[in-house]
Amino acid sequence: MQEFLLIAYLIIALVLIGFIMIQQGKGADMGASFGAGASNTVFGSGGSGNFLTRTTAVLAVIFFVLSLILGNLASGSGDTESEFENLETPVQMQEVPTGTDESSDVPTGN
Hints:
Keywords: Cell membrane, Membrane, Protein transport, Translocation, Transmembrane, Transmembrane helix, Transport. This protein is mostly helical. The chain is 50% helix and 0% strand. The relative contact order is 0.12. The model has no long low-confidence stretch (mean pLDDT 77).
């Protein structure tokens, strides 16, 4: 289920980016009133803002809800044991006896 939600989350994020990039800014109203932008819109001169803003708002709400759900699912999937719960003493290492090898160039310690 988490994989499905993650894929839906990524698709909604990409679609949300696309809808935000399509929208015209507030400064475009001045040019549109002189006829510069009214004929180039797909939805007409006044219809694009309402459709795009509502769709963007719905996608943003779905994006945030999926963020909360995925965060909740991810918080419960971690290890339950802490590193500080097992404070045993480490195992003692055995020393390797050093032999006296006459052909070695490494000096031996006393």
